[in-house]
Amino acid sequence: MSQPAMINRYRWYELAGIYAGIFVFLSFILAPFVEGFLVSLKPLSLLFSSPYRFWPENGSFEAYRTMWVSVPGFARYIFNSFLVSFIVTAVVLALVVPAAYAFARFRFRGNGALLGAFLAVNMFSGAVLLIPLFRLMRSMGVLNTYFAMIVPGVAFLIPSAIWLLRTYMLRIPRELDEAAFVDGASHFYTLRRVILPIAMPGITVVAITTFIGSYAQQFIFALTFNSKTEYMPLPVGLFAYFGRQEVVWNELMAASFVGIAPAVIVIFFLQRYLVSGLTAGAVKQ
Amino acid sequence: MSVRRSTVIFAWFLLLPAVLYVTVIVAYPLVDTFILSFTDASLKKTTKWVGTANYDKIFNATFAEVIIRTFVWTAFSVAIKMIIGTFGAVMLNAAVPGRALFRVLTMPPWIVPMAIGIFMWGWMYNGQFGMISGLLQNLGLVSGPVAFLAHGSTAFWATIITDVWIGVPLVTLYMLASMQAIPQDLYEAAWTDGAGRFYRFRRITLPLLVPSMITMSMLSLIATFNSFDIIWILTQGGPNGDTTTMIIDTYRTAIGSKKYGEGAARAVLICIFLSIFCITYFRVTHRLASGESR
Fold it and tell me: For chain A, which domains are there?
């Protein structure tokens, strides 16, 4: 019984080595955030002075107030990002839940090939297909609307969502479907009343990862298919802090942290789901 | 008989919306790219066939450089991501207090909107006031300010490092999950036989991780080859085209200069490379899966 405990017992120098390794690793991961946060506290005069100083002497949260004044549309950009991500997530779920169920449960000709085709979609990023997508959006008349970001956004998030949810649904025992079927339930009824409730945790994970994916990857479609300020999402809207002469770095960083906050809150509360969800969806990026 | 048929119909009914959507938004544009690449499409109203003229035009020394640069950039980025990511996973796999927190702290670069992380790196690379140049000067390692994004060779590496930073969390979490899937009794058996920690790592962990490493490298290769946001925000392909990869080059031609036809020809070449990677990936994962006798 004590074996697993014994095997995991570290000598002090092993422990020191591991913590040193973790420290170096996390320093690389977190350095930009630390630096970005310190920059948001520094007044511009201190930022643009040499020699470089790491700590913000007479730092303040002033930039977190002025950022709303110098770019009045900022709240709108956050709202846009949320709105786009929310609709994208809803559409992806509506398309993916039935498809994942079909892949998980039914054997039909072309099953494997179709699943492979979906996965192949992952390999082509939106960047490669921008030209025809631009023409397609133009002929659909959705350039410079929310749909210009939503329509292509959905397509590139479908494959990993299908993959993730299918894996989850494969784990639901088949006997449940069969029992319902024997009782005379239709396929549709079985899906709605038996499978959906059991698959809810899996659907939640897919919803979270899709939302985050959409929130994180709006840049290229928004940059190319939308030029209206009122529809700009956060990543593009942040360019408003790039003035004609110089970048208002402290406000840009403050705005970045305000924009990050929703994602950080999500990580904090849902990290348990996230780790399994993100790695199972490793097909994504 | 009819039950079986109704089942198949039901399956297709469930699949149809997703299939139609992806066909219109991804498959059709793929075909359209191919067709456009043989035309002189631009902002003009009329478009005419130009045969292979677009392809003839791009096969020159400059474009060959772009292709080579793309492969070098991608290769370094993937290799560094795999090394740092696997290192992180090995560290975070150790049963030490605080590891749950450390794992959460690994995620931000991937979860935060990419543009924001890239802005932060943009500031850190700033020569006059940025952290990297500043710290190097304070430590006396360099004598004057180093503007990392203003010189070709440093900009090349700077964009790679930022790409690595964004890609590492996924590699770490994936490798971590693979490590935890290794049966614990293998370690216990080795431990009972008196094998030390390093020996167990070298003889059990590493060999069993190889399939995951191959899978992850392939996935990372495809994602990295497609990398756009990082280079576009940091350097827009400059200075002097020293960070211009195939994606950036395509974007500049197609969206920047509005030469859709020429841009499409470049996109077709990217698609060909991606297809090769994709087929290789499916082959490799298939072989790995059958090797596991599943």
Answer: 3-60 (no CATH), 70-280 (1.10.3720.10)
